[in-house]
């Protein structure tokens, strides 16, 4: 990556730093939302400010993924290397998400967040849009969601895939294009130079977009509190605490253990990512921090071609926080309705979530859609999801943080597996970061 193609925090000669602005916006959003709770007529005036920020981020995600992968794969140079990255990445993703699902089942059995809750006294949210997505996903072309996903990786129209933000087809085309660029040798140098310049421009745009982040954060949080109010959390406080606690445990113990095996301090990684985690938490969107995550993981010692391949793939296949949440929520609903699941049934639940979470990777509202599909398949009152939709935004904020940490660490794991993790570069970056 050229010196220009590095995401810098917007420089300010004076005033409040961007991370501090985001934190202030988060607090103000909660306060203003609480004061305006119930005034849903104002939502349509506030929500657009958040949507504008999200649209700006979505606008640059596909160009960054495409250009980064093309340059990186062209640098890697051969299909054998790319194939090795691929199977190692997918194997790691499958193992770590399965651990997340299993951990969620264990926590739900220990703390039983759904026990003793009277479902009739909980306000119901609208899950109709998620039900529609689940029904659409259920009508698979080949009768198997996994096969549909595999076939769907190959785009019939790359422009359409880019326009719809479908990362898997974009990744496939980018890798293929990069291999072709490497294969034609010197003839491809002008094309490679073009993409390097293109990437510099996109990262400059990213820097400008991030200046708008505090406004977007304020709008997202404010609208959430206006719609549901802080009181929506009280009846489901135990669920929120179990989800939050399990996610902290997963980051510190599970991901921390993986990091330790790779000779990385998980707390160093968290400190480097603290600003991005705050932004991801506030917006409930991993996409908002994708460009910065890629930049920081490269600075932390992972090779550019590994970062460019693993991070976008992880945004589809390595949703640790979502997997953890889905298993807890499924058992929460079962407990709330008094449905007892045997050990065998819980193992079936684990296996079902493993399949549905991968098979519906590109479906909007994946976490809820996966839950609806899984609960329906196991006859565990799918309508119960309407009872937790009120705090789903808060739970989504939690699982987004875990998704970001998991995807960031995955690049370091694959780099370590390839014996290409530059510890000295990572150490110097952390020390320079810690001095700020």
TrEMBL record:
<keyword id="KW-1133">Transmembrane helix</keyword>
<dbReference type="InterPro" id="IPR001991">
    <property type="entry name" value="Na-dicarboxylate_symporter"/>
</dbReference>
<protein>
    <submittedName>
        <fullName>Cation:dicarboxylase symporter family transporter</fullName>
    </submittedName>
</protein>
<keyword id="KW-0769">Symport</keyword>
<feature type="transmembrane region" description="Helical">
    <location>
        <begin position="328"/>
        <end position="355"/>
    </location>
</feature>
<keyword id="KW-0472">Membrane</keyword>
<keyword id="KW-0813">Transport</keyword>
<dbReference type="GO" id="GO:0015293">
    <property type="term" value="F:symporter activity"/>
</dbReference>
<dbReference type="GO" id="GO:0006835">
    <property type="term" value="P:dicarboxylic acid transport"/>
</dbReference>
<feature type="transmembrane region" description="Helical">
    <location>
        <begin position="89"/>
        <end position="111"/>
    </location>
</feature>
<feature type="transmembrane region" description="Helical">
    <location>
        <begin position="212"/>
        <end position="234"/>
    </location>
</feature>
<dbReference type="Pfam" id="PF00375">
    <property type="entry name" value="SDF"/>
</dbReference>
<feature type="transmembrane region" description="Helical">
    <location>
        <begin position="167"/>
        <end position="185"/>
    </location>
</feature>
<dbReference type="GO" id="GO:0005886">
    <property type="term" value="C:plasma membrane"/>
</dbReference>
<feature type="transmembrane region" description="Helical">
    <location>
        <begin position="52"/>
        <end position="77"/>
    </location>
</feature>
<feature type="transmembrane region" description="Helical">
    <location>
        <begin position="21"/>
        <end position="40"/>
    </location>
</feature>
<feature type="transmembrane region" description="Helical">
    <location>
        <begin position="240"/>
        <end position="262"/>
    </location>
</feature>
<feature type="transmembrane region" description="Helical">
    <location>
        <begin position="367"/>
        <end position="389"/>
    </location>
</feature>
<keyword id="KW-1003">Cell membrane</keyword>
<dbReference type="InterPro" id="IPR036458">
    <property type="entry name" value="Na:dicarbo_symporter_sf"/>
</dbReference>
<dbReference type="InterPro" id="IPR018107">
    <property type="entry name" value="Na-dicarboxylate_symporter_CS"/>
</dbReference>
<keyword id="KW-0812">Transmembrane</keyword>
């Amino acid at each position: 990556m050229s010196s220009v193609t590095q995401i810098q925090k917007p420089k300010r000669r004076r005033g409040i730093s961007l991370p501090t602005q985001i934190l202030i916006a988060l607090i103000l959003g909660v306060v203003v939302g609480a004061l305006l709770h119930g005034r849903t007529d104002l939502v349509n005036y506030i929500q657009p400010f958040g949507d504008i920020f999200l649209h700006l981020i979505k606008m640059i995600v596909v160009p960054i993924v495409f250009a980064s992968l093309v340059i990186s794969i062209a640098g890697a140079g051969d299909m054998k290397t790319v194939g090795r990255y691929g199977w190692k990445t997918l194997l790691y993703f499958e193992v770590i998400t399965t651990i997340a699902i299993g951990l969620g089942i264990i926590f739900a059995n220990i703390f039983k967040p759904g026990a003793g809750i009277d479902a009739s006294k909980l306000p119901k949210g609208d899950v109709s849009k998620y039900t529609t997505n689940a029904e659409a996903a259920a009508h698979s072309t080949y009768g198997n969601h996994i096969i549909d996903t595999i076939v769907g990786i190959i785009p019939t129209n790359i422009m359409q895939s880019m326009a719809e933000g479908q990362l898997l087809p974009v990744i496939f085309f980018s890798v293929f294009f990069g291999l072709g660029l490497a294969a034609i040798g010197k003839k491809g140098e002008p094309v490679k130079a073009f993409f390097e310049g293109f990437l510099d421009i996109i990262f400059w745009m990213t820097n400008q977009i991030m200046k708008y982040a505090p406004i977007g954060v304020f709008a997202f949080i404010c609208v959430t509190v206006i719609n549901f109010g802080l009181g929506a959390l009280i009846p489901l406080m135990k669920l929120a605490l179990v989800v939050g606690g399990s996610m902290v445990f997963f980051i510190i113990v599970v991901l921390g253990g993986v990091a330790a095996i790779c000779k990385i301090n998980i707390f160093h990684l968290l400190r480097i990512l603290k600003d991005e985690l705050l932004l991801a938490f506030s917006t409930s969107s991993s996409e908002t921090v994708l460009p910065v995550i890629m930049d920081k993981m490269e600075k932390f010692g992972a090779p550019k071609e590994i970062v460019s391949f693993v991070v976008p793939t992880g945004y589809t296949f390595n949703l640790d926080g979502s997997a953890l949440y889905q298993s807890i929520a499924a058992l929460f609903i079962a407990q709330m309705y008094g449905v007892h699941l045997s050990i065998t049934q819980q193992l079936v639940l684990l296996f079902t979530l493993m399949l549905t979470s991968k098979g519906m990777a590109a479906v909007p509202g994946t976490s809820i859609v996966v839950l609806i599909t899984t609960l329906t398949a196991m006859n565990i009152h799918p309508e119960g999801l309407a009872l937790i939709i009120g705090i789903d935004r808060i739970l989504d904020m939690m699982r987004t943080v875990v998704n970001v940490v998991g995807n960031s660490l995955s690049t370091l794991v694959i780099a370590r597996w390839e014996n290409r993790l530059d510890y000295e570069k990572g150490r110097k970056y952390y020390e320079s970061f810690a001095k700020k």
